[in-house]
Predict the 3D structure of the following.
Amino acid sequence: MKYVDEFRDGGLAQKLASAIRAEVDPARKYAFMEFCGGHTHAISRYGVTDLLPANVRMIHGPGCPVCVLPIGRIDMAIGLALARPDVIVCTYGDCLRVPASDGLSMLKAKARGADIRMVYSAADAVALAQANPTREVVFFAIGFETTTPPTALVIRQAEALGLNNFSVICNHVLTPSAIVTILESPEVREIGSVPLDGFIGPAHVSTIIGSRPYAFFAEEYRKPVVIAGFEPLDVMQAVRMLIRQVNEGRAEVENEFTRAVTEDGNLKAQALVSEVFELRRSFEWRGLREVPYSALRIRARFAAFDAEAKFDIAYRSVADNKACECGAILRGVKKPTDCRIFGTVCTPENPMGSCMVSSEGACAAHYNYGRFRDIPVVAA
Amino acid sequence: MGEVKKGYVRPLDLKHGRVDMGHGAGGRAMAQLIDEVFARAFANEWLGQGNDGAVLPAPAAGERLVMATDAHVVSPLFFPGGDIGCLSVHGTINDVAVMGARPLYLAASFILEEGFALAELVRIVESMAAAAREAGVPVVTGDTKVVEAGKGDGVFISTTGVGALPAGRDIGGANARAGDVVIVSGSIGDHGTAILSQRESLAFDTEIVSDTAALHGLIAHLLEMVPGIRVMRDPTRGGLATTLNEIAVQSGVGISLEEAAIPVHPQVEAACEFLGLDPLYVANEGKLVVICAAADADAAVLALRSHPLGAEAARIGEVIDDPNHFVQIRTGFGGRRMVDWLSGEQLPRIC
């Protein structure tokens, strides 16, 4: 695959690995958080940690939109679909499996008769509404800044088309506020029990918001940020740049992903998003609890397309399993294997907490790709 | 003296006609459908007798029977490289053949949905008959049912196959041993990707065609050259990853793969990339996984490659000792990871 294989080259990876080995200070430890699930996936999928020195630890952050979606939000969609046979709920594939209340998930609700469908894009959701004029089509929109502009676009499109059977349950969340929450957590800020030396900044999110929003973290919290692409060589190059910053005592925003990310980001997309959405005062994240100004809602001007207003559905918070350590894992305080229910009660088939839900979550990534490391294996 | 005139029956309208409930009711309409569609296409001595079952000769002395069954519910019914008809023949022949048996006969059950176009049914049945003829495995008995509109998906086909297993041959999922070599007969993921490319919701343009094929010829050739093969399996639903996990558990071993050695067509790789799928988990319908002793591995790859269906055969890994029965892979990038059982359906990631 042209333009992809170049970033997965095993030979280059070996060269980069030895360059990193030459640059690390063997006398210290390095702990970096990759915020995005996309990076977590790349690290696990390609076995990137095998190519890093033992004193470099990667902490898997909360940037998996499916993982951080609280149970109560999914309950809203399921409740609506079960109560109203005229409603078709549609959403992205990964969402269908997320466990909700009463032992349900969207997949299980579908088996009970709810009309819930998978779409590949927001545009598909509008097409579904056009194809089913006698039904109410509700798009369950999730994701960080990357998937927000398409949702804004289809809301405007639905208005232009005069579609009155299309609406959106908006669950779009914001990256910078989640990073602040992690940096403000007592373990990181005051107690210092979690060494966090820097961040690998988001790839796709940054194509929209640009590199500027991260400057605050470098300045205020003295943490280096390197924005990186989602390919494994991008990740390794970013780690090398972070190690350099740490060694030289710098805390700056650097951009490894220059092939797609600029300082300003995509201004057109940003304008579109602010035309359709506004900040929510607070939003609950699975694993991080309530995070102030961390999510978007549909502006009053587009209320006709806001399913929460249209069907008068209210959010009700649902507590996670008590034994679940997702919150601590997302902040880097614990590792998946530190959780009592990891791999026993909590598995990808039956996820208890957010990190086990999507393959981009820290626990699912370790379970699916890495748990052979926990057990010594004798080669033939 | 005049002959007794046969009751005049208007022939089925195979161009514009549709399946109706009468075609499954056991009366004349059903007899006519069987006559004009099924018996005509499958024409053989057993079906021609019109009995409830087929009387078949016993296998040779010392041989044992192998029986396998497979239901086919593929959507869409017609896809690049095949259709539900030939697929239902290949799928069951392969299940019999991977046991090391010589496939002999097939039985077929059709569940038709009211309103299904007879022209499509004829196309499917003819494709099935052609596949059976080509494979030399006749459909000797069958059944047809019709369900009300909305209760089926056009047509479901269930086939059962019987084959003869030579004396002393022991091929099965429990036979892999540490040190053995894992071989695949060609590129993986073609069938599943071809099907996905036709799904209404995400139709995309591609040249990928399904690999659906009957593998008994390839298998016979392989076993002739390398009789000591320990495990054979066709990695269908769940793909190569699922098949290898099954074998690891059955044999009580681990498996270690080399990602760079696994053949994947570039188009399949690209389609999986943008759909967020892993080709290791995508279905195949004409591929074979072979496990044999390391000493036999080169001969086995050579044997597979000398047959048209195994031209891209490759050695992809080895069997290791592992009390956890994990399947691991050394990635092309240079790291290691697990290739775990699929959890639920393989759903695309969103970002």
About this structure: Chain B has a mean pLDDT of 93. The first helix of chain B runs from residue 28 to 42. The radius of gyration of chain B is 22 Å.
